[in-house]
Structure formats: C-alpha cells, structure tokens
Design a protein that fits this description.
The structure holds two protein chains of two kinds. In chain A, 44% of the residues lie in helices and 4% in strands. By secondary structure, chain A is mainly α. Chain B has helices at 12-36, 47-74, 90-100, 121-146, 160-186, 194-201; strands at 6-8, 154-155, 158-159, 203-205. The chains are: A mainly alpha, B mainly alpha.
Amino acid sequence: MMRNRLILIVFVCCFGWLGARAQSYENAQEHQCLKCHSNQTYTFHNDLMERQESRLMNPYFVLDTIALKAGVHHVFDCIDCHSYEYTTYPHSANIKLEPLATCLDCHGGDESFAKYQFERIDEEYQKSVHYQTYGDAFTCSKCHSQHTYTATARTSSNVQEIVEYSNNMCLSCHNSMQEYKLVSGKDNPELVEVHNWLPNQKLHFENVRCIECHTQVEDSLMVSHNILPKEQALRKCVECHSSNSRLIASLYKYENLQSRKGNGILGTMVSNDSYVIGTHQVPLLKTLSYIIFIGLIVVIIIHTIFRILNRKPDDK
Amino acid sequence: MTNNNKVYFYPMWLRIWHGINALGIIVLIITGLSMQSGIDSGFIMSFDKAVDAHNISGIIVTLNYFLFLIGNLVTSNGKFYLVKPRAFIKRPIKQAKYYSWGMFHGESAPYPLSEKRKFNPLQKYFYILVMYLAVPGAIITGFALLFPELIIEKVYSLSGIFVTAVFHSIIGFVISIFLIIHLYVATIGKSPLENFKSIISGWHHIHHGKK
Ligand code: HEM
C-alpha cells in the first residue's frame, strides 16, 4: 500500500515535471507531441528494426503552433483532452476510438462562460441545415477547432479580420473537396458559381460574413448559429445597403465595434453602416442633383419659348 | 446649295467616335440611373443586367475615348480644343450673353463659325471640360470600382470605395447635364435639325451673320 503510493507519487512527480515541460507549446520541437505534430516529417525509434526512422506526417494531423498558442484553450496540454496513451508511438489502435469532449461537455452550465450562451447556441445549432442533415456527426468542432479557436468577433476591432476568420471556418470545408466529401460523401458546389448573382463577390466575402446572409439573425444572440436552407438565404441587397442595415443587427452589435458609429458629422453622413451605392445615399447630393436638373429643364423651356416667340418668318 | 458655304467639319473618324460615344454614354446613363435607384427596385431593368450593360459600355466608351485622344493628337482637329489666353473669361461670357439676350434681339453671333473656328468659345470650354476632365474622371473612377482591390482602403474615416463611388456618380451626373445642354444647344441653328445632320454627314453649313 505504502509502496504503491510511493510509486504513484514518484510517477506523478515525474510526469508532473515532464508535463510541465510539455505544457509549454512555446518550443514545439521539444514538446512531446508537437515534435511530430507540427512538422511535415517525424522521426521515431523502430523497436522492431532497432533503428531511427523518418516518415511523412499526414498533413491533416499537422497543427499550426502559432494558432495553437493564440487559441482559447492554450492553457491545456494535448493529453488533457486526448488520451494519455498518445505519449507513446506508434499510437495504440484502441485510442483512436476514444470519445472526445464536446464544447458543451466543458462549457455547458458553467456560469463563468454564461456570456457566450453555449446552451442557446447549441439549441440554435440543432435547427441548422448541417445538424438537420448530418446529426451528431456534424460536431461544433467541424467549424470550431478546439485547438485554435479564438472568439475573434468578440475580441478584434478589425472588421476585415473578423470576417476573414469567420468565413474561413466555412470555406475550410465548403472550398475543400476533401473536407466536404468527408462529411457528405459528395462534391462541393462551387461557391463562386452559386453566388455569381452577387456583384463584386470577392469584396463582399472580405467584408461580410457568410452567416450574415445564411442565418436568421437573433437579437439576443451574438452569433446566430441557425444556418438556414439555401432557399431562405438573404438575397436582398437593401438589407445591408441601407441606413438601417442588417449588419448593425448582427456584426456591429459587438461592443468592440460600436465605436465605429460615432465618428463625427462626416462619419454619420456616410458611415460604413449606411454604405450604399452612389450619390443618392448622400442626401445632400441627392437634393442638389434634383435642384440642378430641374433648374436646367426650366431654363431650357424658357429659352425654347423665347425662340418660338422670336421665330423669323425666313426661319422655316 | 453649293459647296461654297459648306465646310467639312466632322471627318469620318470623328463621326464614328462621336456615334459610338453618344450611344455608349446614353447606355451608361440609363443603366447608371437604374443601379442608382437601388438593387431591388428593378427600375428600367434588373440590377444585374444593368451592371453587365454598364460595365460593357464603360469599356467600349473607354476604348473609344482613346480614338478621340489619338485622333485629336494626330489630325488638325485637335487645334479646335486649344484655348486662347486672351480674353479668357470675356469671350465665353459674350457668347452666353448672345444666347440669353442677343439672339432674341436680332444681334448676330459674336463668334461666327468658319473653317478656322469650329466651336464658339462657350462650346469649346464645355467640350474641353467634358472630354478632358469629366470623361477621363469617369473612366478612372469607373475602372477603380471594377477592380476595387486597387482602391485605397480608407480616406480618413471613409471607405475608399464609398468615396470613389460617390465621385463616379457625381461625374456621371455632370456628364448627363452636359448631354442635355449639348443636345439643346445643338438645336440652335438655322433649323433645329441642321446640326444633327452635320454630325452624321460631316458637312456644316456656314450662314453668314447668324450661326
Ligand atoms: C444622342 C447624343 C448626342 C447627339 C445627338 C450629339 C450631337 C452632336 C452634334 C449635332 C454635334 C455637332 C454640333 C456641335 O458641335 O455642337 C456634336 C459634336 C460634339 N459632341 Fe455630341 N452629341 C451627343 C452626345 C455626345 C456625348 C455624350 C458627348 C461627350 C461626352 C459628346 C461630345 C461632343 C463633342 C466633343 C463634339 C465636338 C466634336 C468635334 O467636332 O471635335 N456628344 N454632337
């Protein structure tokens, strides 16, 4: 009993120390997992052949160490989520079957994360096309990598960065033949063609999130997770290109972006929110153009009347 | 009528340029107005058709503009677009006075047209402003909007695209106003249709005493 405990303590200490070393994602080459999982090749000792061997790493198992360090879960070590048995290589076959915790397993019902409304998100998400079609096989992790996720929309003040981050979550699958096929078993429709009715597509995809058009905007939820069938997607340009825009109701409701609104007279006259095409969206210019146009027509009419009155007999 | 009082004002290349330009710009104005009215209104035509037609005619007008530029560089037509520094302001004012007063009081045109003078001073200024300022401005801003990645992202706190779009439509408006004036003034002549016949046939009648 005593001996067992001692062994356990020594064991824990050893691994505590190892763990402490491993905890750090800082030095990937020293990390017990990242030394293999951040490189295109890995080296291990082949016990059978009694020699060191180098092989190619499956590119889908290579982790982005920079994103890993920035991610919300950087405080975890790999084996906090994955089985401890992964510390040995070759990884044993049965751990491939291990169940992994979902977002809700850890965050559900936790007061400290209440502001993210995990339960509401889950509820909304279950109504989405993805869940409706593929059920539990389509996990939150399909969009949110547990390794690298950051709540960008909440923390960044750069709209373009938010949009890019968010859209990459969709594009990583919808623009990837492999990822899409993995989920659906069929080929992905070309997004460029599906959206060819949208002018300046590239610009739009850099400035608006896919979810802006593809979800039902919920006032009480920061990021609406109910992705609607394509028939219900937003096509109406005025929803965004008008002064009372949908973007205010969705993207710009984050506090970090609120400051964009109050930037002076010029700012409010032609602020980003009211972005619309052409001069007619600047009321002053619109009125001015009407005045000039009507003035010109009046002058022409008066001039014509005088010409008719003044007509010389030889003119015709 | 003999050739004596007829002048060959508008050479073939100029008439071709002018015809394409007139049609192109009319399409641009109509499609531009259609887009201006918003995306869902379908005013005149549907939005995406308007965008396509606008882009295509924009490109045609641009290519055609080079015909105008080069034509005026290599032929003698260019000299009609040179401004005399003498009485720089007085001359067009005199012409404006004629249009608003003189022509109704039996005065004769202050700058009668001849082989040496194709445009009266007012007309010349208008043509210069439109052809060397407005049209190139519309072309540059238009192409910027066609390739928005070329545009500076922020002009102070405003979106660069927004500023460009507003400039583009202001210029479009200016050209539309020019066109109305241009069409109206062209009806001032011996008969209202005479100038229009000239820009098609190339030959202009010189009337002594009156334009
Ligand atoms: C349906 C549309 C148009 C018609 C019927 C028309 C008619 C005419 C006529 C009759 C003339 C010769 C008389 C004069 O010099 O006043 C003329 C010349 C001219 N027009 Fe137009 N015009 C049209 C559109 C335009 C547009 C859109 C522009 C430019 C943006 C333009 C630019 C010019 C110029 C620069 C000349 C002088 C050409 C030269 O002799 O060098 N026109 N046009």
